[in-house]
Amino acid sequence: MNSIKSFSDHAQCGRCEPPRPSCARTLLEQSSPLVHGGGITFVFRYGSPESSGPLGRVPRSLPLALAVCSRLEVHLVGGFSDDRQLSQKLTHQLLSEFDRQEDDIHLVTLCVTELNDREENENHFPIIYGIAVNIKTAEIYRASFQDRGPEEQLRAARTLAGGPMISIYDAETEQLRIGPYSWTPFPHVDFWLQQDDKQILENLSTSPLAEPPHFVEHIRSTLMFLKKYPSPTNTLFPGNKALLYKKNEDGLWEKISSPGS
Questions:
Q1: Nearest Cα to 90, choosing from 60, 113, 121?
Q2: pLDDT computed for residue 8 by the predictor
Q3: 20 to 30 A from 243, CA-CA: which of 131, 183, 210, 261?
Q4: Are 122 and 241 found together in one domain?
Q5: Are residues 141 and 156 in the same domain?
Q6: Given 148, 182, 200, which residue is the final one in a domain?
Q7: Do 187 and 242 fall into the same domain?
Q8: What one GO molecular function would you report for this record (predicted)?
């Protein structure tokens, strides 16, 4: 089955980082025959009520798609009935933003907050943590991903260090373009590495009770990476050039040389 993962760093549809249970996964689908007969336009994640606006995090090419397409269909999946009501706030912001748009946008799927919630021992958990899309049929289905793509630790470190959502996939060249990134040394990294699992879970997660089993291990690994590379520009990106990957004949990501290398 041909399916598309989101190639945005942060996007949980492709599970590029530890799942954030309170976040919303949003899929925009073209239904206009003018653009390759219709199909999947974007999959992205919106995960902070304090961000600059839900649609401000959609890939840059959205305005062009809206200009060409006669209709965009929205599929909104994710979040749950968390104690802090982050999911509810995110959902409200997303729906309000889409409602304000002058374009022909239609809500087709809504599986969020209490509609994506299950209760176990009086604690709430999401039913669906991740989604995938069949790019031939536009079928959306529940999914989890063992392979999170190239340079997972590097990308996770940028996220934990406060990096904003970015797109790393170039559809024209069919390449992943990672970096170059820069970040300041992570504050009190040694302190956090000394903490037990409970402290990390309670302080570095928005929904401690709903995190998957590998969350703490992933955070520890990312903190170790940040400690090892407090300033990554020169050490991880020689010549301040991006790391490029392209799929080989077997469908596996393979590192390729940067232009001018």
A1: 113
A2: 43
A3: 131
A4: no
A5: no
A6: 148
A7: yes
A8: protein-N-terminal asparagine amidohydrolase activity
d(CA 17, CA 14): 9
Q: How far is CA 219 from the centre of its chain?
A: 16
The DSSP element (H or E) to which 27 belongs, if any, is strand 24-30
- pLDDT tens digit sequence for 210-239: 888 889 999 999 999 999 999 898 899 988
Cα distances from 53 to residues 29, 65, 106, 148, in angstroms, run 20, 19, 19, 26
Domain limits for position 129? 3-148
| 54 and 79 inside one domain | yes
Judge residue 114's burial from the number of C-beta atoms within 10 Å of its C-beta, 0-12 exposed, 13-18 middle, 19 or more buried: exposed
* DSSP E strand stretches across 79-213: 105-112, 117-120, 123-126, 131-134, 140-142, 166-167, 169-170, 175-178
Long-range contacts of 144-149 (CB under 8 A, 24+ apart): 144/15, 145/5, 145/14, 145/15, 148/14, 148/15, 148/16, 148/17, 149/5, 149/14, 149/16, 149/176, 149/253
Helices 152-160, 215-228: crossing angle, 10 deg rounding? 90
Note the pLDDT of residue 76.
85
Residues 141 and 209 grouped into a single domain: no
Residues 155 and 127 in one domain: no
- Per the model's pLDDT, the better-predicted residue between 57 and 102 turns out to be 102
| Distance separating alpha carbons of residues 248 and 254, to the nearest angstrom | 6
Evaluate if residue 119 carries a pLDDT over 70: yes
Q: State both tokens at 205.
A: 């997660």
Identify the band that residue 260 occupies on the pLDDT scale cut at 50, 70 and 90.
low
